[in-house]
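testing teh design pipeline on a random one, pls ignore if ur not involved
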């Protein structure tokens, strides 16, 4: 939906190279890794690329927003990004947990 504003157009606006390829690739990658996190399969491995994606998102959008609007508006605008970042760091450290497929496969 709205590729000129939210897809490749957004990637072009922030200066990422080859936005027509990178936007759908990043979206598909986020969906695949997100699904792996949901079911708890290769949780730590799936968290690593998602950490890279959210770090790029924060660096390319929230830093500029901070300089334009200040501290408190940036915290309000970026709360979901920071929550995702902290959640991914937690999953990288702790893993999938006792109900994950990782636990089922590796702790028999």
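output:
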């Amino acid at each position: 939906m709205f590729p000129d504003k939210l897809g490749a157009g957004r990637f072009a606006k922030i200066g990422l190279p080859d936005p027509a390829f990178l936007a759908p690739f990043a979206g598909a990658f986020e969906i695949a890794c997100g699904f792996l996190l949901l079911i708890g399969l290769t949780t730590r491995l799936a968290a690593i690329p998602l950490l890279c994606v959210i770090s790029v998102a924060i660096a390319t959008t929230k830093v500029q927003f901070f300089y334009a609007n200040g501290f408190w508006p940036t915290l309000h605008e970026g709360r979901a990004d920071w929550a995702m970042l902290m959640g991914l760091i937690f999953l990288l450290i702790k893993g999938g947990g006792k109900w994950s497929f990782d636990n089922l496969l590796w702790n028999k």
